[in-house]
Amino acid sequence: INGEALATDNGSGAAKTTITNTLPLSSTHDLRIGDGLKGDIAELLVFDSALSASDIESYEDYLWRKWIGPCNGCDETLLLWLDASLEEGVFRDGAFVSQWHDLSANAYVFEAPSNEQRPRYDVPFGDDPNNLGRGIYFDFDDDVLVDVSSTVGTFELPLTLFVVYQANNPTAVDNRGYLLSGNNTDFRISRLGTAWNVRHNDPTNTLTGGDNNNAVSLMTIEFNGTNSHIYFDGVLQDTVSLPLDDITNLMIGGQSLASFSHDGAIAEIVMYDGILSTAERARTWDYLSTKWSTGP
Question: Residue 213: is its pLDDT beyond 80?
Answer without folding.
Answer: no
